[in-house]
């Protein structure tokens, strides 16, 4: 077996299948494109679903890739096992209705054992197959595998619900008994068993059946091959490491963590190795995820990133690392992966900054978690109970990043226990939800054999023509090809030999319009246009009158609709470049929608645009409009377009060998198949109507052009005129000054109000501070006062401290269903063991609340003002018994 680096193994795999006629598909973003069923790209086939479900026919049915993936369903196992990772690479080769078992099995063996390739010992390979799949068993033997190395396992059937499925065959490498964690005669010590000796390196799925909603299995019209080989596992085998974490994919990260720690060393026999592994895994995941546009937040992908960062930080603390450190590991991740994934190194500064910011935020979140925990503890003390329930412990873990052991530690300080079994039950419920979600979300649509079989030539001529006479070639009604459609038919799908109707693509909506017969009678209304699997524009229509195949019809688009769409599409190109100029070159499009009435543009950023930046964007785009720049389109070979034109690839698009390039002077040059204005002057006017966050690290701009921009500005002018009337100013230009005056007047009224409160507080202090009790040798002031908020209580506490009015102060106030408490403890009382923070925790349960603070000052809020008297009495009792 050859001694190879991870980069060499990855490239060797791709080179092998390229030599077998496969097209190398570049690794897609971890953020799924046009696939709402997935949170992350989680497998090599995830980005190829459109080919396997038949919605798109690939140019080459043989595809290979090295795809970066994220899975977090078993996050708690990371670091505790040899193989679990949240980020991993999947090597795969795929056949879409082309080769099948008799080709792929010998190829797999050739790559693994061939002298030119990995050069593994064939005697160390074991195969598992589906028991009924005798053909596969025979093919492995014919390829040279010893029959005693071929196992029949019932689980070797790939089926994730409705859609493609079929038997699969797994390849295991025997690393020898020295790697095993079981005795040789253990029932699990076999290929496919739960052991460390036989390591699965490849899974080949023979996707030959469709799982119908009824539960029945039927043969697919086109049989496919879907394989998956985990790069990290394969590298572990070739580099002879005990786990994936000692390979060159992880070890440089672990080495750096050792340097950052307080002298700890990575040792697989030591408990600390778990923390090293978690940090190494998680920093790879967040580096790639942030690089692809996912930023920490409270939901979706952002929540996953936030949780991973916090988990890594907590494990850093276990290794004696204080303060932000994870961001320092980003350059190492970049250097390890640079040969195939240069994007991490290219975005190193941005990725590191994003991670560092989240590390700093985590300290605040820890405090929020402590507040929740203190509230739970206070309730238990009130009820005289001794166990923190599993649901609360899990919430602390899942929402605030508290590991169970941290909650246990705090509980023990309060003489409480934690329901660890309940915690595990909640953890298992979450896993079950994740498993069900995976089963539902990963399923792939079934192939539409009718549309897949239609290979009629159809030409889009809508760049230059709004109306064309064309021959109707195919009519599809209820998924059947028919010769005639009538008004009784209702909806139908039509394919013509040519069409001016644009099919929805790249964020631009489809054209609408009508179809007429040769006598100019309307026969159909075009509602939508999409791409058929073989690339034709397929028209969804409402049939008005009879339509027959092989007859000629006049196709007319709605030109007003098209013109507005063209203008807005050109505006998105100008806005795209303007964002790079104003925000920074790293800014890129994360989605778009081009409608006739408005445009929507999503871009990556973890910060909102300032008013000044929005003004800059509008100024730049409008200056290009007023400059009356011709919009030029040109069809070029893709490499020429990249090199000579410097064209930018729009988000989510796949491009062929020849591309259409849209240029606006030397300002904007992009690949684009959409329709555009002929000159920027046609746009008339550009105005941004809103800017907001729409997801983890994604911002959205809504904007309008032309007539809609004029109407937007006119509506806002009317609002300004109405405001001027209400403010009683004569000219619109006076509105800002008058508004500023009103704001200042309001501020002054608030200051006057606050001064009155201070005076009232001073008056109250005389009443409050005169009421002193002697309890257990300490002077105590404990009373309920009339106050609207906590600030009055704090002001009184500050005055009490300056005047040294007593040893202990306990104040309560309640209004509108809310209760507030403040406790202040002087030095003499503290010397006797009384602390404000402890006292507030014990008495706040009476107002159904919680709180905390320092030994000298603490506060609490609650929901039950009626409990204030009891809270004060409880404070007196505690002081009396101290």
From TrEMBL:
Cofactor(s) this protein requires: Zn(2+)
Documented EC number(s): 6.1.1.7
InterPro entries: aa-tRNA-synth_II/BPL/LPL, Ala-tRNA-lgiase_IIc, Ala-tRNA-ligase_IIc_anticod-bd, Ala-tRNA-synth_IIc_core, Ala-tRNA-synth_IIc_N, Ala-tRNA_ligase, Ala_tRNA_ligase_euk/bac, DHHA1_dom
Keyword Isomerase carried by entry: no
Residues that coordinate or bind Zn(2+): 569, 573, 672, 676
Record field: catalytic activity: tRNA(Ala) + L-alanine + ATP = L-alanyl-tRNA(Ala) + AMP + diphosphate
Molecular-function annotations in GO: alanine-tRNA ligase activity
Region listing for Disordered, in residue ranges: 847-866
Cited CDD domains: AlaRS_core (cd00673)
UniProt domain Alanyl-transfer RNA synthetases family profile: residue ranges: 4-715
UniProtKB keywords: Aminoacyl-tRNA synthetase, ATP-binding, Coiled coil, Cytoplasm, Ligase, Metal-binding, Nucleotide-binding, Protein biosynthesis, RNA-binding, tRNA-binding, Zinc
UniProt remark on cofactor binding: Binds 1 zinc ion per subunit.
SUPFAM superfamilies (alphabetical): Class II aaRS and biotin synthetases, Putative anticodon-binding domain of alanyl-tRNA synthetase (AlaRS), ThrRS/AlaRS common domain, Translation proteins
Compartment(s): Cytoplasm
Principal localisation: cytoplasm
Superkingdom: Bacteria
Coiled-coil stretches: 732-766
Top EC class, one word: ligase
Similarity section: Belongs to the class-II aminoacyl-tRNA synthetase family.
Function: Catalyzes the attachment of alanine to tRNA(Ala) in a two-step reaction: alanine is first activated by ATP to form Ala-AMP and then transferred to the acceptor end of tRNA(Ala). Also edits incorrectly charged Ser-tRNA(Ala) and Gly-tRNA(Ala) via its editing domain.
Entry's free-text remark on domains: Consists of three domains; the N-terminal catalytic domain, the editing domain and the C-terminal C-Ala domain. The editing domain removes incorrectly charged amino acids, while the C-Ala domain, along with tRNA(Ala), serves as a bridge to cooperatively bring together the editing and aminoacylation centers thus stimulating deacylation of misacylated tRNAs.
Protein's name in the database: Alanine--tRNA ligase
Lineage: Bacteria, Bacillati, Bacillota, Bacilli, Lactobacillales
């Amino acid at each position: 077996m050859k001694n190879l680096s991870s980069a060499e193994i990855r490239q060797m795999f791709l080179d092998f299948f390229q030599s077998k006629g496969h097209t190398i598909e570049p690794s897609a973003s971890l953020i799924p494109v046009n696939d709402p069923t997935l949170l992350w790209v989680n497998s090599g086939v995830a980005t190829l679903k459109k080919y396997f479900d038949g919605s798109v026919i690939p140019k080459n049915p043989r595809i290979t890739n090295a795809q970066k993936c994220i899975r977090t369903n078993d996050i708690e196992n990371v670091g505790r096992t040899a193989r679990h990772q949240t980020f991993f690479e999947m090597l795969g080769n795929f056949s879409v209705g082309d080769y099948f078992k008799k080709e792929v099995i010998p190829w797999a063996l050739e790559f693994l054992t061939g002298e030119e390739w990995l050069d593994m010992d064939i005697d160390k390979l074991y195969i598992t197959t589906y028991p009924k799949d005798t053909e596969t068993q025979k093919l492995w033997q014919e390829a040279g595998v010893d029959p005693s190395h071929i196992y029949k396992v019932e689980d070797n059937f790939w089926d994730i619900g409705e859609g493609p499925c079929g038997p699969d065959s797994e390849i295991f490498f025997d690393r020898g008994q020295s790697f095993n964690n079981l005795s040789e005669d253990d029932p699990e010590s076999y290929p496919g068993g739960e052991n460390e000796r036989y390591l699965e390196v490849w899974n080949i799925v023979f996707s030959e059946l469709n799982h119908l909603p009824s539960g029945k299995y039927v043969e697919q019209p086109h049989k496919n091959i879907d394989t998956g080989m985990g790069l990290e596992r394969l590298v572990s085998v070739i580099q002879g490491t005990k786990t994936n974490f000692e390979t060159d994919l992880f070890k440089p990260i672990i080495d750096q963590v050792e340097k950052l720690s307080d002298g700890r060393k990575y040792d697989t026999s030591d408990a600390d190795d778990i923390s090293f592994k978690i940090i190494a895994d998680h920093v790879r995941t967040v580096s790639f995820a942030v690089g692809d546009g996912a930023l920490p937040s409270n939901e979706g992908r952002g929540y996953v990133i936030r949780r991973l960062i916090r988990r890594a930080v907590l494990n850093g603390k276990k290794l004696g690392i204080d303060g932000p450190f994870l961001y320092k590991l980003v350059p190492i991740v970049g250097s390890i992966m640079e040969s195939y994934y240069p994007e991490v190194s290219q975005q190193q500064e941005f990725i590191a900054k994003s991670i560092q910011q989240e590390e700093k935020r985590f300290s605040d979140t820890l405090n929020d978690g402590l507040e929740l925990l203190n509230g739970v503890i206070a309730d238990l003390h009130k009820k005289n109970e001794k166990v923190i329930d599993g649901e609360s412990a899990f919430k602390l873990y899942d929402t605030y990043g508290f590991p169970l052991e941290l909650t246990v530690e705090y509980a023990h300080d309060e003489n409480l226990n934690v329901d660890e079994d309940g915690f595990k039950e909640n953890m298992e419920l979450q896993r079950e939800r994740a498993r069900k979600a995976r089963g539902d979300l990963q399923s792939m649509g079934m192939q539409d054999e009718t549309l897949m079989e239609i290979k009629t030539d159809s030409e889009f001529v809508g760049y230059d023509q709004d109306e064309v006479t064309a021959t109707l070639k195919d009519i599809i009604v209820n998924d059947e090809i028919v010769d005639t459609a009538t008004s009784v038919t209702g909806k139908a799908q039509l394919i013509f030999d040519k069409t001016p109707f644009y099919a929805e693509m790249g964020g631009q909506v489809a054209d609408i319009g009508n179809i007429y017969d040769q006598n100019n009678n309307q026969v159909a209304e075009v509602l939508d246009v999409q791409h058929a699997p073989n690339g034709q524009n397929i028209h969804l229509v409402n049939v008005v009158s009879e339509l027959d195949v092989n007859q000629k019809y006049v196709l007319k688009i709605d030109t007003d609709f098209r013109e507005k769409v063209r203008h807005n599409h050109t505006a998105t190109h100008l806005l795209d470049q303007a964002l790079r100029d104003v925000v920074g070159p790293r800014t890129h499009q994360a989605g778009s929608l081009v409608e006739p009435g408005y445009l929507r543009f999503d871009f990556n950023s973890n910060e909102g645009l300032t008013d000044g930046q929005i003004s800059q964007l509008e100024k730049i785009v409008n200056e290009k409009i007023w400059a009356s720049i011709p919009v030029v389109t040109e069809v070029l070979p893709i490499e020429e377009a990249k090199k000579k034109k410097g064209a930018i690839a729009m988000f989510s698009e796949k491009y062929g060998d020849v591309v259409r390039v849209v240029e606006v002077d030397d300002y904007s040059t992009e690949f684009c198949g959409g329709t555009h204005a002929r000159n920027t002057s046609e746009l008339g006017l550009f105005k941004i109507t809103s800017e907001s966050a729409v997801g983890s690290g994604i911002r959205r701009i809504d904007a309008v052009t032309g007539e809609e921009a004029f109407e937007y500005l006119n509506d806002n002018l009317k609002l300004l005129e109405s405001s001027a009337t209400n403010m009683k100013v004569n000219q619109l230009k006076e509105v800002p000054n008058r508004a500023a005056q009103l704001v200042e007047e309001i501020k002054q009224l608030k200051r006057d109000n606050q001064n009155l409160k201070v005076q009232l507080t001073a008056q109250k202090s005389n009443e409050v501070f005169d009421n002193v009790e002697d309890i257990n040798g300490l002077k105590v002031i404990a009373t309920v006062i009339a106050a609207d908020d906590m600030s009055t209580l704090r002001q009184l506490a500050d005055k009490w401290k300056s005047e040294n009015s007593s040893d202990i102060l306990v104040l309560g106030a309640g209004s509108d269903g809310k209760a507030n408490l403040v406790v202040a403890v002087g030095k003499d009382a503290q010397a006797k063991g009384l602390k404000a923070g402890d006292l507030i925790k014990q008495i706040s349960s009476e107002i159904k609340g919680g709180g905390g603070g320092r030994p000298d000052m603490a506060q609490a809020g609650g929901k039950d003002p009626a409990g204030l008297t009891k809270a004060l009495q409880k404070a007196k009792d505690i002081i009396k018994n101290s």
